[in-house]
Each structure stands twice: as C-alpha cells, then as structure tokens.
User: Fold this.
Amino acid sequence: MNPNRYHLTRITAGRTVQHGWWGSEVIARRKFSAWVGSYSAIPDTRITLADEETGETLTTWPSEA
Assistant:
C-alpha cells in the first residue's frame, strides 16, 4: 500500500493551506467529508481529493458543475 496515494488539498483564496495523504481511499474519503464539515463556511474554499497513482480527481467541494 502506498501511504501517499490519496491526496487531500484545501485551497482558500487561491492559496493551498492544508494537505493530507492517506494510503486508504476509505479513510481519505472520511477525511474529505470531515474537512468539508469543518471548512465549508470559510469563503472561497475548495477541497479536492485526488488519487496520486492514477492522476484522477476523485471528488471536489464545492462540486464542479
């Protein structure tokens, strides 16, 4: 298991302010939900979960239209 496979990023006002990496997609998705709950009230915040092995963006908040 790659401990840095799932990368969570929080950007506020165009600046990266927080990162997190996990080897488990299940744990990374739980963290994503927790971050949305904790930081969604901050204006101009974007949270992204990506799979670093495939380069795929798994989910974002707010979701893209």
Observations:
- The two ends are 33 Å apart (CA to CA).
- The chain has a mean pLDDT of 95.
